[in-house]
Fold this protein.
Amino acid sequence: MNLKIEVKELNEVVVRFSGDSGDGMQLAGNIFSTVSAEVGNDISTFPDYPADIRAPQGSLTGVSGFQIHVGETEVFTPGDLCDVLVCMNAAALKTQYRFAKPQATIIIDTDSFGPSDLKKAEFKTDDYLSEMGIDTDRVVACPLTTMVKACFKGEDMDNKSILKSRNMFALGLVCWLFNRDVKLVSNFLKKKFARKPDVANNNIKVVRAGYDYGHNVHAGVPATYRIESKVKKPGRYMDITGNKATAYGLIAAAERAGMTLFLGSYPITPATDILHELSKHKSCGVKTMQCEDEISGCASAIGASFAGALAATSTSGPGLCLKSEAMNLAVMDELPLVVIDVQRGGPSTGLPTKSEQGDLLQALYGRNGESPMPVIAALSPTHCFDAAYHAARIALEHLTPVVLLTDAFVANGSAAWRLPDINKLPEIHPHRVTPDMKDDYTPYHRDDDLKVRYWAVPGQEGFTHILGGLEKDGKTGNISTNPENHDMMCRLRAEKIARIPVPDIKVDGDCEDADLLIVGFGGTYGHLHTAMETLRRAGHKVAHAQFKYINPLPANTTEVLMKYKKVVVAEQNLGQFAAYLRGKVDGFVPYQYNECKGQPFVVAELTKAFEDILQLNQPL
């Protein structure tokens, strides 16, 4: 008998897909987040890749996760713990259950919990649920592999191809649980596999089978759920990752400036997707070059900049080390260049698929000599577009390399993004030579106010010049070893960066009378903002300031940091931003909250730590 099931409305929900790195958890999560964005929900995602290139199947180190936070209003983090946990095998249950709420619904593929699977996952008994203290009433035990095989019974398909669709059955079951229209999933699959219609149709068939399974047997749950959407601003929205948003920001900047975009890059996790994305947009005049190493990727971009293009290079922490010599050439030659560093866990190879903020001081100071550069940090996946756009604008208008810091969390994570009107983006005016300078041009002739030199492209009649890595005379552009000239040029390059105008730092929350100011930079924004709101709901007076412009700092930085009784600087390193702020603001002595776990902050842990600081009798 088909019982009627109750539909409950939720404000938000967190779902986590987990399985072997070959089980397609990232695809299932991406599809669920995309269809959620399409119906107007706000989303925040966290792909949690294993660090192993390809761990043995069913092993604990090979588990891949994808977490999605879906809300009717704006959500800022992927969530601390999930409401629904999908486990495609025993190893996934063993490693991912710690990310589930005590009352979470757990969906497991019982076909992947055999004796050998349990042994690989290091379970001690066959009663794995009791061993982990999991209430069986919260578990949807589905013979998922058997059901998928039944979908293709009688068809000429090999077992490997059949098993590739297991993730789609799990997705269909989750879509049923949250009243998602499977037609949206079908449309996604038809578009993704447009050149392989048979693959699209097979996946659609399995998605519907998973949805029907939940609908027909009610999957052991008393209710399904619906999350309404409350989009505040009308417009076209899409689910976008930080890396894709970074690529789009560069494309938009090039178009707004009327220039060709060039990216010279060497593949490195987790930055490679920027190169992949930009390579798809030749129709927009984008040129990409995959180089043989990091320094050549940077050097090719410098050559493109010298020739008059908007040039960029992308990398992650170890690659930023290798690019540093070439970056200094751009400092010396005062050429526009956007250097994108998608931070990951370090040092050395470190944690290639995990997130960290350990490259800040390298971005600020990691070059020989006095070599100042602007440094910008993206706050979220969607903010990567704005950060990349403004990094390009600063580079072109102030003729300098600019470091754009993102991190693996915001680069691989995604959110619902409202497509901007490119004509409403700030104008970009490259600091080029003017006709009246013809025949009297020297490469370091500067604007009196901003101290920016004028940019001439090789081949322009009357603007012959030479640039290079040796120090030049500030008036003639000839090579110079004069001590006074070198001192002057070092100071001019520093002054040029210091004069770049950036917006004031904004303070959220109890900005006038907070007992505690939470300070962060870059991709920790969502977690710190949520922690602030949690504390305010508990009756505390708390404010939050998240820095996106690191060098130069906003003009009101000292005023803000010295205004509050207590300040805590929270960052995913051992205190680099706190040390930088102490050096820039006299008398600033903050509390610190530091982690190097390769994982995003946990809001509950932040809240507890900040409450402890609030309860201390005296400021530090």
Notes: The CA atoms of residues 25 and 225 lie 22 Å apart.
